[in-house]
Amino acid sequence: MAKANSRPKYDEDLFRESTMTFGEHLEELRKCLWKAIVGLVFVFILTLIPPVDLADRAVEFISGPLIQALRDYYVGIASKNYTNDQVRLKALGVSVPSAAAFDDTIHTDRMVPTLVFIDAPSVLKDLQQRYPGTFEGPTVPNFTPGDFVDVRNFCQYVEGERKLTEANPSKRVWELLSAEVQKLVQKIAAIPDGQTPEPGDVQALAAAVERIVNDPKFFREADYQQIAAAGLVEYAITTYHGRQHDRYLAIKDSGVAPNSPAYNRLLLSAAYPDAVAAGPRQSAMMPLFTWQPVENDFRASLKSLNAQEMFMIWIKAAFVVSFVVASPWVFYQLWTFIGAGLYPHEKRYVYLYGPISAGLFIAGALLAFFFAFKPLLGFLLYFNEKMGVDPDIRISEWFGFALFLPLGFGISFQLPIVMLFLERIGIFTVKSYVSRWRGAILVICIAAMFLTPSGDPYSMLLMAVPLVFLYFGGIFLCKYMPKGRNPFAEE
Predict the structure, then answer these.
(1) Which residues of 141-161 are buried (b: 16+ CB within 10 A; e: fewer)?
(2) What's the whole-model pTM score?
(3) Chunked mean pLDDT (size 10), the chain, 491 residues
(4) Three-state DSSP state, 207
């Protein structure tokens, strides 16, 4: 009767019946590798077939966290940008609702505003020309306070040149003003340097100048030619970029009726180049906020910088997907070659620890993809917002980063298996693991710094904290995992 604890008897050479030469081993390896490659290529081709579209879905899946982070980024700064625009418009004398009024629009509906300015007179004139008789009723001012470059200079010109004996625009402007407005001109001209006129006074003066701009008798060809001959138009071109003479030729070529407001405005801007704007000014335009869903914002999208980049990304995505899908077949073929040379107790180790290792790798990769990317991207994009620089991220750079970070997490999560292996071969003991846990945590933090490509504190902590728990889990594994006995050990 055999003893209960007797070891099973193994022959010294378990593979005596299957002894192979070195060349036969190579031929067997070649067959296994060939089968693995054929399976991998088959799956690779399958991912490229349009009905399957696994490569397209992989690119969309991998780029998803970054696109979502960009959308959150632009939604987050929308209120800040709106507040800045509000301050800017108040400086122009325009009253707009506060950012709090659009809180739900921005954060709940995820809409982002864009401030645009419309030259209302030009738009109305275009509509009246394109649709005759339809837009004849509405009118907009041909001159507003915003058309003054420097209202004080304008008043000083008019008031100072009104007594000239020869005909000139300033003299006729003065003559066309009412007595009340003439007093207003003198009042504004006398304002000391560094002070600004009252808004109501500027508004009243702009209304009076508009009546002059609308006066068909104001423009005189001789006045304009005299100003041009005196070099004032050229002065305006070089200093204020008014390009009055080009505008004059453009007005003549466009067929605008003589003595129209366009000619009158041109004469004023040529006579007072540093006081009256030659063209539309921002302060005279109508501000308007346009809204669009953040999904339609071109800024919240990835960029490719050359023609072949997206093709290479598509091929890389197809290869990654095909390797993941075909990995069971590839590992099975490798196992058929390696497993044939292992002892039964060695195979049991693979059967036991292989699934644990694979599970830890998958857990680490999933942790990186679903939990690390969001705080990581939020942290990195914070510096864009802080420095006022819009991110313009290249998809190829993100693709490599998005693959490397989960790989680093997956490899680091093998810590308990590595600890168990080192304990089983006698390099470390459970006691040494327990006594050196402080140093182990330091090493884990340093390793997390190198295994996270961005080096930011969020991803480092997301890797280091689970590794600390896995370290103590490794101690538990080493202490309570049964030790298999070596069947070839001596009695």
Answers:
(1) bbbbbbbbbebbbbbbbbbeb
(2) 0.68
(3) 50 54 79 88 86 82 89 89 83 76 87 88 81 77 85 87 68 85 90 87 90 82 64 42 46 55 77 79 82 90 85 87 84 80 74 82 84 84 86 85 82 86 82 88 85 70 85 86 54 44
(4) helix
